[in-house]
Amino acid sequence: MGDYVATFEELRLTDADRAGGKGANLGELVAAHLPVPPGFVVLKSAYEEVVGAGTHGPELDELHTLGLAAAQSATRDEAQQLDELCRRMREFVHGTPMSPAVRDAVLSAYHRLGDTVTVAVRSSAVGEDSATASFAGMNVSHTNIHGDEELITALTDCWASLFSPRVLTYRARRGMHNRPEMAVVVQRMVAARTAGVAFTADPATGSLDRIVIDAARGQGEVVVSGAVTPDTYVLDAAGPTLLTTQVGRQSFAIVPGTDGDQRIQLSESDAAAPALTDDQAVAVARLALEVQAHHYGRPQDVEWVFDDEHLWLVQARPITILPSDTATKPPDAHTVEGRVLVRGLAAAPGRATGLARVLHSPAEGSALADGEILVAPMTNPDWLPTLSRAAAVVTDSGGMTCHAAIVARELGIPCIVGARTATAQLTTGQEVTVHGSTGQVYAGNPLPASITAAPRPVPETTAPEATATRVYVNLALPEVAERAATGDADGVGLLRAEVLLTQALGGRHPRDLIAGGEDEKFIQSMTTSIQRISSAFAPRPVVYRASDMRSNEFRALEGGDRYEPQEHNPMIGFRGCYRYVREPEMFRLELAALARVREQTPNVHLMVPFVRTRWELEQCLELIDESPLGRQRGLRRWIMAEVPSVMYRLPEYVGLGIDGISIGSNDLTQLMLGVDRDSEECAELFDESDAAVLNAIEQIVTTARSLGITSSLCGQAPSTHPEFVEHLVRAGITSVSVSPDAVQHTRHAVAAAERRVLLDRALSRSDRR
Fold it and tell me: Which of 38, 90, 341, 686 could form a disulfide with 677 if both were Cys (CB 3.0 to 4.6 A apart)?
C-alpha cells in the first residue's frame, strides 16, 4: 500500500523486520486462509520517520542506553532512576509532531476498513512475538478505538510504550541492546462474546500431546492480563478430544462501550457456567492446531475470539519457553509432607524456598528484596522489574496462559496462578516453598534433605541420558538454531532450506534474483544464514536439505507467479530432485553457498529431497560433482525417503554414492496410504503408526544397515509416541530428528527403548542357554 502501511495480505514472516513479529505473523495466517479479522500494519518506517528521525531522536538514543544500564540488574536503588528515565523518554515521544505523510497513510488505510470502524491498535515491536522473545504484554495495546484522532493517539501510545520500565527490563534481561523499533497493528474489532488463549502444548509440563485453552466472557484481555481466573480446558491433541474442564472465577467482563472499553458485572449464573461449550472448546483446539501446522509444527500461543456466529483468530506467536514433559513432572512430589498453605494452577515449573513478600501493586515493587517470593493479586506486565528479582511468584488470579505465567517461564522462575486466597493466606516475612510443578505452596522448607532448594531456582531438569541412537533437531531459522545449539542435540538432522531461503532473500523468488543477475546476492545471503547455524553447532553435523521448491509455496514469493506452474496437486508435482534436473540454475547457487560455508565449517552436509527414480538422482549427483561443493572432501550426500519407490531402489541409490537416508514420515505416510494429511475429511486415515507405514520404515532402516549407510527419521512421531520410538530402535535406526523443544523428551524415550531392547536380547540369550 505504501512506504508507511501494509495490509495483512501484503505481509509474510519475512517482513518481521519492518512489520514486527505480530504483524508478520498475521500476514502468514491470512495467507493460510485462516479466519483473521481484516486490518493493516503501520510499518516501522513510520516510527523511524516520526520518532527516530524526529527532533528528540538523538536524546532518546542516549536516554535509552542509560535506561538499559539501569534495568540490567533492576535493584531497588536503580528502580527510581529507571522510572524517571522512562518518563522523560515517553514525554519526548508524545511531544514529537506527527508527520503529515504518515498521518495521511494511516488514516487512508483506516478508512478503507470502513467509516469510523472500531479497531484494536496493538504494538508489534521488531523482535516481538518471535521464536525467542514473546514480549508478552510488554508494549501497549488499545481496544475499541474509533475515529481518526483516537487512532492517531493510540498509535503514538504504542510507540511511547517502547520506553516503559517493564520493556527496558525485558530487553536488558534478554540482551537486546539495539535501538528499539516499533510497528503497530490496526485490526477490526470483533464483538467478543467469549475470548481467550490456546497453547498447542501444555505450558506447565511441555507435553506436546495436550492443548490448553483459557477462556473468559467478553474480550480476551482479562485472560492475558491475569485480571480473572479463566476457565481452563485441556484437550488431547490427537482428536482433539476434550479431557478436562475447570471453571474459573470471573465476576466481570470487558465489552465494547460508547466511549471505548466498558466493564460490566456478570450475574451469578453467568459467572458459574463454563464460558465455552464442549464443541466450542474442540473448535478452538482445531484452529490452534491449524496454526501450528502452518508454522512447521512449532507449538503456538494463539489468541481467539467467538462473536455471535464465528470463531476468529486475532493473534498467534511461537511459544518461547516450553519445558520438557519429563523434566517438569515432579518425581519427588509424593515425598513432600509439609503443610500446604495455598493451592493454585501450576503455571511455570521449578521450586523455590524464601521469604514471602505480599504486594498489591507494581508501585510497591521496590519493597521486594532479591530472592523473595512475590505474592500478588495478579501480575500484569508492569510487574516485570519486580518479577526479575523474585525467586518465585504466586497470584490470586490468572490462568496458565496469562502474561505473568509466560514471563515467569521465560525468566525461569516457578509460578503459581489462580491461587485465589494467596494474598490473604500468606504474610510478608513468612518462609514458604513454592512448587511450581504441582501448584502448591508449603509452609517453611518441607523438602527432603536429598533435595536442594536453591535460593534462586532453575527449572527442574534431568541430566542428559547417553543413547546409542542420536537425537538431532529439525530447524529452519538461524535465531532458533543458535538457542537450540546450547541444548542436548547431537546435531541438526534436517535444516529446511525453504524458510531459510525466503528469509535470506527478503521474500523474493530465487529465480527473480537470477533473472536480475543477482547470483552473488543469493549466494552471499544464503552463506551468511547457513553459517550462523553451522558455526553454532560445530563440530556436530548439520544436514542441509536443499529447497524442495513446491510450486504452491514458491508462487507466494515476490515474482513467483512468473516462475511457478499452476498445479492441481503440488504435493506430487514439480518439486525436489526432479526439479533440480529440469531447472538447475537455483540448485547450482545453493551448492555454491554450501561450498563457501564448508570452507569455514565443514560439518555441513547435503540432503536431496523427494527422490523418485534412479535416473533423476544420477543426474542430480552429476550436478553436485560438477560444482565446487562436489570437489570438497568429507561431504556426505543424503537423500530423503518420502516416495515408496525408495524401498525398491535404495541399493541402487547407495551404489551411486549416497551416504545416508532420512525418512520423511509425513510424506511417506501420505504416499503409502494415499491420503492428504491436510484434508479434514480424511484426517482419521493419516496414521504414521499404520502397519504398512511401519513396515516400510523398517524395510528402509534394515536395508540401510545392511548397505552400511546411516538412517534417520525426521518428524514429531518419535517425541509423541514412545511405541513408535521403540519400533525405530528395534529396527536399528541411526538417529531421529525432532523439533528443539522435544529433544530432551525424545532422548528419554530413546534411552528407555534401548534399555528394553537390551533386556529383551539378554533374556533371549538366557532362554537359548
Answer: 686
The secondary structure element, H or E, covering residue 352 is strand 351-358
Q: Which class does domain 471-768 fall in?
A: alpha beta
Grid look-up 486490518 returns 39
DSSP 451: S
CB distance 185 to 141 below 8 Å: no
The topology (CATH level 3) of 5-188 is Dna Ligase; domain 1 (3.30.1490)
User: Phi/psi at 651 (nearest 5 deg)?
Assistant: -60, -35
* Angle CA 124–128–131, to nearest 5: 140
What DSSP designation does 241 have?
E
Query: Which fold is adopted by the domain 332-443?
Result: Glucose Oxidase; domain 1 (3.50.30)
The partner residues of 546 in beta bridges, in order of sequence, read: none
Spatial separation of the C-alpha atoms in residues 232 and 405, rounded to whole Å = 14
Residue 587: what pLDDT? 93
- Cβ atoms of residues 709 and 660 within 8 Å: yes
Report domain 194-318's class: alpha beta
**Residue reference for cell 537455483:** 586
Of the listed ranges 335-339, 667-671, 683-687, the least confidently predicted one is 335-339
Tell if the pTM clears 0.70, that is, is over it. Answer: no
Catalytic residue ranges: 403, 714
DSSP classification of residue 550 = -
712-725: per-residue pLDDT in tens? Answer: 998 767 766 667 88
Residue 421 CB-half CA count within 13 A: 5
pLDDT at 295 (0 to 100): 65
Coil, strand or helix: which one is 250?
Answer: coil
Domain locations along the chain: 5-188, 194-318, 332-443, 471-768
The three-state secondary structure class of 253 is strand
DSSP bridge partners of 545: 496, 607
